[in-house]
Write a structure and sequence with these properties.
By secondary structure, the protein is mainly beta. Helices cover 9% and strands 50% of the residues. It has one helix at 2-13; strands spanning 21-31, 39-48, 53-56, 63-64, 67-68, 72-80, 88-95, 100-107, 112-123.
Length: 133
């Protein structure tokens, strides 16, 4: 009986382990023009570290994230260039300690730009939609 009590006490004293599956609710501002006005931004992300997948909002498309480590989750990190006019850069990161969300996208082909600065709060995991086949 004492052995069970010791095991229970050891489990209680262990540091909390990070969750493998969780949602993030990120709120902040978005700019769609370099130097342009900032607009309110809100997004819910579903993150599954076990499978390396995430999705946004209603989860219309499940994606693989680029990298994860103890300090950050990188959802995207793309850089393509074959001359200035066809340059494409997209990077989205989340700081796991502070909750800071940063997104930058520049597309030289379409002359589009997007910049998001937000803070994310942890929320209960919403499972990905069921796959039928």
């Amino acid at each position: 009986m004492a052995g069970k009590a010791i095991i229970a006490l050891m489990l209680l004293l262990q540091p909390a382990q990070p969750q493998d599956q969780f949602d993030l609710i990120c709120t902040g501002t978005q700019k769609t023009e370099a130097g342009g006005p900032a607009r309110p931004y809100e997004e819910r992300l579903r993150i599954d570290l076990r499978t390396g997948q995430f999705c946004r909002g209603e989860c219309g498309r499940i994606e693989r994230f680029y990298d994860v480590n103890a300090l950050s989750i990188t959802l995207a990190n793309e850089r393509k260039a074959s001359g200035t006019s066809s340059m494409f850069v997209r990077k989205t990161t989340i700081n796991r300690r502070s909750g800071q969300y940063r997104h930058r996208m520049i597309d030289g082909r379409t002359l589009s730009y997007s910049s998001v600065d937000a803070m994310c709060e942890l929320a209960e995991f919403t499972p990905f939609p069921e796959i039928k086949f």
